[in-house]
Amino acid sequence: MSPEEELSLAARVKAGDKKALGLLWDAITPKLYGYLLNVLRDKTTAEDIFGQTWLKAISKINLFKAMGVRFSAWLFAIARNECKQQWRTRKYESMGEAIEDEPRSENENHQDKIFVKQILEKMTEDDRELLKLRYIAELSFKEMATVLNISAISARVRVHRALGRARSIIKQ
Amino acid sequence: MAFNNDNLSKILREWGEKQQRSPENNENLKIQAVNSLKQPEEKITSQRPFRFRWIVFACTAAVLTIYFVGAFYNQLPIPSNSILTTPGVQYPQSSSGVGGDPNELGVSYGEATGLGEKNSAFNKVARRLTGYFGSTPASDTREFLKTDYHANIKTRKVGVMANRIQTFVRGFDGRVDTLSVDSRHAYITFVVPKDSFENFKEEIKSLVPDRFISEEDRSQNLLPQKKSIEQQTNSVSQILDGLQKDRAALINRHNTAIISLRRQLNGIFSEIKKLQLEITTDTIRQQQINSLIAYLQSQQRRVNQNISNENSRYNSELSSLDYKIKNSESQLKNLAAQDDMLAKTVETIEGSVSIEWISLFEILKLYVPTGWLVTIFGAIILLYILFGRRKQIDLP
Asked: Could you give the 3-state DSSP secondary structure of residue A100?
C-alpha cells in the first residue's frame, strides 16, 4: 500500500469509516505483529501489545497528523512505547526467552534465515531495532527518524553503520 | 559467497518479509478493533499551545540587539587623529619647489610658488574675496570650473583600501598631499589632472559596491578671479606702455638737449679759438679780445654745467623710469603666474577620500535597513505563533 493510500484511509478512519480501518488493519498487521514478535520474542506478549497498540491508535486516531510520515509509522511508534512500558513494568528481557520455531516453507532459504539470526544475535540491541524497523516494518528513513525521535540523516547513517557492523561480524 | 551491503540488504529484506505475519486470532482482533472505532465527535478547538518560545525569544533578542548595538555604534567617538597633517606613511619627497624638478610626477602645480597648496595665500584670498571680484557680466559665458571631489568609503580593510587609492592617484599622474591611516580610519587628500578625473572616479567606484561608497563633486567657476587677473594685466600693461614711451621720450629729449648744448659749446669753443688766433698790436683790441675770451670761457663753463646738469637729471629720471618699468614687468609676471596657476587649478581636481571601517552589523544594515530587519523578525514571530508546526508526532 502506498503512503498516499494509507493516509487517505487514515483520514477516512478519523471520519469513522470502519471499512477503511479494516483495510489498514490488513495492510499493517503483518508488519506490526512480525516486528513485535521479533522484539518481544514471546507470542502471548506480542499479541497483547499488538492488540493494545491498535486499540490505543483507534481511540486516539484524532491525534494522528501526517507530517510526511505514514499511519503505520505512527502505529509503530505507539507499539514501541508499549514495549518500553512493558519492559519497565515487567523487566522483560527481549532476548531472554526463545520463541517458537517458525514454520519452514518450501521455498525458504533456510541457510539465510540462520545466517541472519546469527548476525542479529551478535549485534547490539540498538542495531537490531534499526534493522527490524527497516526490514520488517519496512519504514523509510524519515519514518524511522520519527519513531526513534532522531533526524532522518541520523537514521540513514545508523542503518548504514549497522550494516557495516553486520558485515564485520560476517568476516569474523 | 562474499557479502556486501547490497546482497546483505537483499538478504535482510527477504528475511524481513518472511518475519511478517498475522496473529492466530487475527480476525477476532480485527473485529474488536473495528467495532471499537467510534464516530467522530464535534470538534472542540483547543488553543494550540505555543511551542516555539525559543523562536520568539531569539527574534526578540535579535530586535533588541539591532537597536542597542546600532545605538552603541552611533555613539562611538571619531578618533581625534583621523585627519593629520603629517603623513602616516613615508613616501618619496614630492617635487615641491626648492631644488626639485616640478615635473617629476608628471605634473607641475606651482609647488615652487606655493600657490598650488590648498592653504596657499592665493587660494585663501581667492576664496574669501570671491565676492570682492564683483559679479561678472552675464554675457561672459566662459567657465573656469574648479572641481573638488570627496568620497567616503566603508570597508573592512582600511589599510589595503588606502594603499589602493594612493596607487590609483599616482597611476593617473596625480599627487598625494596628505595621508593618515589607522586600523579604523584613513584620510587621503590628493590632486589629479582633470582630463583623467572621470577614469579615476570610475576606478575608485569599482573598489567597493555602490552601497559602500558615497561621492560628492563640487565645482566653482573661477571666472571672477580670471576677470580680475585680466583687468589687472590690462592695467599694468597700459602703465608699462606709458612708462616705456616716457623713457623713449626722455632719451630723445636728453639727446636733443645734449646736442644743442654741445653745439653751443662748439660754437663757444670756435669763438674762443678765433679770438685766440687773432694777433693784434692794438692794446685796446687786445683787451677786448681778452675780455671776450673770458666771457666766452664763462659761457663755456656755464654750458658744461648745463650739460652736466642735463646728464644728472637724465640719469635720475631714467633710473626712476627703469625702476617703474621693472616693477610693472614684475607685476605682469606675477599676474601671468596667477593666470597660469588659475589655469592649472582648473585643470586639476583636488580631492579627498575618507575610509571608514565597517562592522558586519553595519553591512547588514546597508542591505537591510533596520526597519526591514524588525519587520522580518516580527513576521517570523507572527508566522510561528499562527502556524507553529509540530515536530514530533503525538502519541496517545
From this structure: coil
Model pLDDT, residue B380: 80
| Residue B396 with chain A: CB contacts under 8 Å | 56-57, 59-60, 63, 78
CB contact under 8 A, B15 and A132: no
Q: How many Cβ contacts (< 8 angstroms) between chains A and B?
A: 127
Query: Which of B94-103's residues contact partners 24+ apart within 8 Å by CB, and which partners?
Result: B94/B175, B94/B176
Query: Which residues, including other chains, have CB under 8 Å from residue B26's CB and lie 6 or more apart?
Result: A29
Contacts of B261 (CB under 8 A, 6+ apart): B303, B306, B307, B310
Are the beta carbons of A6 and A71 closer than 8 angstroms? Answer: yes
ipTM for this model: 0.84
Query: B363 to chain A, minimum CA–CA distance in Å?
Result: 35
- Tell me, what's the pLDDT at A168? 86
pTM of the model: 0.41
At A150 the pLDDT is 84
Residue B161 near residue B186 (C-beta atoms within 8 A): yes
pLDDT(B293) > 70:
yes
Contacts of A16 in chain B (CB under 8 A): 37-40
Whether A134 and B5 lie within 8 Å, measured CB to CB: no
Q: Chain B partners of A166 at a C-beta cutoff of 8 Å?
A: 8
Task: Give tens-digit pLDDT for B87-107.
Answer: 444 334 343 434 444 444 333
Mean pLDDT across chain A: 83
pLDDT beyond 50 at B391: no
CA-based end-to-end distance of chain A: 39
Please name the residue of chain A whose CA is at the shortest distance from the CA of residue B21.
Answer: A30
Amino acid of residue A83? C
